[in-house]
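From: lab user (bench 3)
To: helpdesk
Subject: output format question, protein + adenosine-3'-5'-diphosphate

Hello, I'm new to running complex predictions and I'm not sure whether the block I got back is the full result or only part of it. Here's what I submitted:
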Amino acid sequence: MTTHERTAELAAAIEAVSRAAQVTQAVQRELVTADTLTKKDRSPVTVADFASQAVVCETLQRHFANDPVVGEEDAAELRDEANEPLRASVVEHVQRALADIAPATEAQVLSWIDRGHAEGGAKGRFWTLDPIDGTKGFLRGEQYAIALALIEDGEIVFGALGCPNLPSPADEGEGLLIVASRGDGTWMTPLIFEGESELQPVHVSDIAAAADANFCESVESGHSDQDQSVQIAKKLGITAEPVRMDSQAKYATVAGGSAAIYLRLPTRPGYREKIWDHAAGVIAVEEAGGKVTDVAGKPLEFGHGRQLEANRGVIATNGRIHDAVVAAVRDVLES
Ligand SMILES: Nc1ncnc2c1ncn2[C@@H]1O[C@H](COP(=O)(O)O)[C@@H](OP(=O)(O)O)[C@H]1O
Ligand SMILES: [Mg+2]
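Helpdesk reply: Thanks, we reran it on our side. This is the complete output you should expect:
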């Protein structure tokens, strides 16, 4: 990083996301089995979700004691008497991840998870966290992300996106960590790495014609309309097959230039996107030179609380082809 240097935020976020990734990878190795999905057993992702949130919130609290966190989870379910085995598993994973800091008690672990209860809003500074974004991808052993962003007065100013199952830069270490700081740029580094790793600058694709784009979308057709995306791609002259992946790994893919479009097309009129599902990915794409709006072409507004109340869907591109993509989306959604 060079200019504004949110260096304290950078250090805290790298520590938080890489510690959390150690936890989620350990849970995936130990608890996700071939028949987790067929049995519809969500317990591994539940353990990893809570443990990841505890580890990130503990790290943020150590670095920035007064910063609120808008996190996806809270510990109410874990406090339930009936959930003792789940609670014990979460506590054990958190203790392992923080073994070099302090011996964590059960009460501390629950209180760290509960730090994620903040409401966000238009004023002041807060972090937003998705401890495991792409829960379905995690259970399938495919893409998922740990997504952390800092919002000040409604604007995303910093983001860190850990993608444990995306290829590591230069094949060093494990996974991909993308960091972005407003006005400074976007960088990548291996997510799990022994020793000091360099931050490498990241740029969006420089294609000028939408027809040349690869586009990404959700694996889950319930999260983004895949029939409409076929029509939009056709209208734009895109011949490449859609790249389907779970989580904000899609934003990382656009930021890094492997795809020039990410489409998220509403499937239900009443659904509101959650801020933690987008903030880290949006700043990564924007600071890599790209553009992100909703399906109407409006900027995403992160100052309305826990949800993107003023927006529907998402279009992220390399910037150069944005207006053409918005126009094609409008045509298809209106028809
Ligand atoms: N009907 C819907 N439309 C859009 N997004 C939805 C949705 N229902 C759930 N989601 C969100 O989609 C996210 C996953 O996105 P993707 O499909 O890009 O992997 C989920 O995050 P979690 O996996 O953290 O729960 C969840 O918040
Ligand atoms: Mg999510």
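A quick orientation on your result: Residues 210-334 form a domain with the D-Maltodextrin-Binding Protein; domain 2 fold (CATH 3.40.190.80). Let us know if anything else is unclear.
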